[in-house]
Amino acid sequence: MTRRELAHWARQPVQVLVGLVFPVMLLLMFAYLIGGGKGIAGEYAGFLVPGMFALTMVFGLDATMVAVTQDLNKGVIDRFRSMPMANGAVLVGRSVADMLQSFVSLLVMMGVGLAIGWRWHGSFGAVVGAVGLLLMLRFAMLWLGIQLAMVAGRPELVATVQILVWPVGFLSNAFTVPENMPGWLGALVEWNPLSATATTVRDLFGNDPGVAGTSWAAEHAGLLAVLWPVVLVGVFLPLAVRRFTALSR
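and the corresponding structure tokens:
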């Protein structure tokens, strides 16, 4: 199933390229066009770039969501059912392909970050840990997206349900610190899974965290950066596999 998804890359290279370029455009836009850094001590690039890494792990789920709904609606699942295949193998294959593309996208983003002046100051082990946490977040959001796709049921409705993922990306500390927000909104942002991951990878990369929060969520961001993906995968992976099995019968 993973090989099948990778073969689609060769036939649809533009889609893969767009997936790599879009987060780069966002990074450059916030770094040079929109500006930012209000209330952030130190170099804004050291704050922004790790946040954009985390944001990249949340966005770009639409390709996987559309692919899952297309499989359900084109009848290809009927052929798969005649093969000795585990329930959910199609979803797992798709998720592995998505993770490979996400890893490549993360490497591209790190290269662009270095080009605009971002640097990491942590050890090699810390950098590997940061990349691991980012991919954990992607894996968790991926299964959330797959579940939403099957709730939508059809490719044309994917864009509608994908909007539900946007608040996770924008209501976060990817661009600015929660201290710049109203109190209730800042508290909500600090509990966002993306914020926990962004805060933790900034620390692992040795970058400026901006302004350190004093809430429990801010002080235990590293713990939440691990717990949130584990909880999300534990909830949405079995739900997605169960729903896919039911819809493909």
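(Above: one complete record from the training split.) The chain has a mean pLDDT of 84.
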